[in-house]
Each structure stands twice: as structure tokens, then as C-alpha cells.
Amino acid sequence: MLFALTIFTIVSSAVETYQEKIRNDYSIVIVTKTPLAAGDISELGGIEVDQVIPIDRNKIVASFKNRLTQNSLRFLDQRLPYFYQVYLKQFPTTSQLDNIMEELKNKPSIYQIEAFSKNHSQIYSLLVLSAKIVFILYVIIVLFAIFIISKQVKIWFYEHKERIAIMKLHGASLLYSAKPIIVLTFFSSILSSCIVVIFIVLFSQNSSLIFSEELKEITTINFNIWYESIKLLLVSLAISFVSIFGVLTKLKIKPN
Length: 256
Fold this sequence. Notes:
The protein is of the alpha+beta class and 256 residues long. The protein is built from ten helices and five strands.
């Protein structure tokens, strides 16, 4: 279960890093007949616009300097439309991009749009799909883990029913009688968390054994070892104790 959680964390980190990377790099280029005023485009497709940067027209004209006469360059400068790069605060999904294109096409001053999103969308969709698959597998493993631990707890109670019966005759509650398995669960959770943390450390130092150089070029995996260690321990303890107290509740035992 903890290994599955770690893999889900790694994949989610890769998705978030790639999303942030393409959000910073990705822009929609629009061509307008007239200059855009400040605030003309503040939101597109339900996504807030981060900034609208004009592309220097002088540089565009200068690129034709060696191919056109001075009169042609002046004419080009007069006729040249206005170019802008629109940066969004988050990378749009395919449906959001369709809405953005539709909104921009409805603006009379805009007559050409370049989205350049095909390659980014394919990679991002693949990463998101991978994260969803890993999450579904993680949920299934958690449910299976709770089921197995609950069965183990029931077996433990059955194996120690005579000792528990004697302790109950002396006034001990069943919860107190279950103290050995609770302690065992606590230390088992610590041990399992340590094993997975060791895996995380080894992975962080040798990620090239799992991820190819091509994948590492488009995204990185960033996570805090201490934070992940504490999270794994808390999840391990939570699942274990939920299973134990779930059995106690089923047996109609009131822990007090």
C-alpha cells in the first residue's frame, strides 16, 4: 500500500512539474488589426490570463531588411498587423482550448490565432491518465489492505481467545486485551514506512534506472523526503488502526 502511495506521489509530482513548465512556456499567439488596450483580454475559457505581451513589430520589419527596398519596408511597417503572446495562469485542457479559440474568433479585431498546443496536450494528457490509473490502483490496494489487516486481526483474536477470556474475568476490557496487537501494529507501521523511505532515497539518487533521459528532459520529480516519510508513517498507522478498531466496532466493543 505504501509503495503504491509512493508511486502515486512520484507520478503526481511529475504531472505537476510538467504542468508548471508548460504553463510558463506556453502562449497563444494572436494577430490583431488594431492595438489591444489594457484589460481587453483578462480571461479566456474560464482561465485567468497571466499576461499579454506584444511582439516587437520593429524586429519583424528588420527581418525583411535585406530582402526589401526602403519603400517596401515602410509600406510593410504601415500594413503590418499587431502580434501578441497571451500567457495563461494554467495550461488549458482540450475543451478549454476549444472555448478559448471560439472566444478569440468572436473578437472582431482578431483575425488569426495560433495555439501551438498539440504536442503539449498529448504529453500532458498521457501524464494525467497515468496519474489517474495509479490513483485507482492505490484505492484498490488500500481497500484490499484494510480487508487483509481486518482478517489478520480477527485471526489474532481467535488465537488468543482463551487469554482474552481470562483477562476479561479479571475486569480487563477487550481493548486492553488487544494491547499486544496494537503495539505490534504500531511498530510494523514504523518498519514498513522505513522500508519504503529507503526505497524513496534510493530512487531519488538513481532515478535514471527507472526514468529515461528523454522523460527527465520534459519533467522532473520533486518531493521532500522528510515530508513524505511523515506522510507514509501517518497513512500506515491510520490504515492499521482503522482496521483494528473496525474489527472492535464490529464486535460491538466500546474502546474506553
